[in-house]
Design a protein that fits this description.
- A hairpin with a 6-residue loop joins strand 7 and strand 8.
- This protein is an alpha+beta fold.
- It is globular.
- It has four helices and 15 strands.
- The N and C termini lie far apart (36 Å).
- The protein has a single domain, classed as Creatinase/methionine aminopeptidase superfamily (Creatine Amidinohydrolase), CATH 3.90.230.
- The protein binds magnesium ion (MG) (2 copies).
Length: 254
């Protein structure tokens, strides 16, 4: 069931989104070769609580295997849901961060991919195109049009560069819970509802340098590319109004 939000609810979600983007602006300078990924998680967790929010990823998921961190840190061939650990960021790593905040019941969700130190040209290109895919997807958000227009825009752009589009995971409705209907895929398959005023969605292309296939590791969280190639991930929370779409999270310039 798609939950349409009223203006007051969208105001609350927007405030949560602005808080999340403020957190990102402060954490980006820390994402440097040498730092342990669990230090980044601890920093994010503390920042969010100090700001008056709750880290919504922490404890999310099945009771017997909840996600153990506030922040997903997904490096190189890891697509999403990388678990922070004692691993240190290395020079040349492509580091995706994904995080969400619950602020007074209003949920935000945003992901960015950071180039740590001196990364390869191939990694830079992939990251640039993935970010472009996010914006192509957002440009396709039009009230009254069908949702899979987003996927057509995202996958068309990625495929024009020969990249693989992850199809086993996708964006989603968001705002009153972390994952709501509808699914917002990056490839044009699945249900195709009309975009309506009051919908709030997370658009999040996950683009691979190789094929779009992924595998789930034994921890049942970490998703990696099946062919071990690089992956990048960018995400915004977007609200749909009668005559326009608004990106509620801030565009982070790296
Ligand atoms: Mg996310
Ligand atoms: Mg998301």
């Amino acid at each position: 069931m798609i939950r349409l939000k009223n203006e007051k609810q969208i105001d609350g979600i927007r405030t949560s989104c602005k808080m999340l983007s403020a957190m990102y602006r402060e954490i980006i300078p820390l994402v440097k070769p040498g730092i342990e990924t669990k230090e980044l998680d601890k920093w994010a967790r503390n920042w969010i609580r100090r700001a008056g929010g709750q880290p919504v990823f922490l404890g999310y998921g099945p009771k017997k295997n909840p996600f153990p961190a506030a922040l997903c840190v997904s490096i190189n061939n890891t697509v999403i849901h990388g678990i922070p650990s004692g691993r240190r960021i290395a020079d040349g790593d492509l580091v995706s961060l994904d995080c969400g905040i619950d602020l007074d019941g209003f949920i935000s969700d945003q992901a960015i991919t950071i180039e740590a130190g001196k990364v390869s040209q191939a990694a830079r290109n992939l990251n640039k195109v993935t970010r472009e895919c996010l914006h192509k997807g957002i440009e396709a958000v039009k009230p009254g049009d069908r949702l899979l227009q987003i996927a057509r825009a995202v996958s068309g752009h990625a495929k024009s560069f020969g990249y693989g589009v992850v199809y086993q995971y996708c964006g989603h409705g968001v705002g009153l819970a972390l994952h709501e209907d509808p699914s917002v895929p990056n490839t044009p398959h699945g249900s195709n509802p009309r975009m309506m005023a009051g919908m709030v969605i997370a658009i999040e292309p996950m683009i691979n340098a190789g094929a779009g296939d992924v595998e789930l590791l034994d921890d049942e969280w970490t998703v990696v590319t099946a062919d071990d190639t690089l992956s990048a991930h960018w995400e915004h929370t977007v609200a749909i109004f009668h005559d326009h779409a608004e990106i509620l999270t801030d565009d982070i310039i790296l």
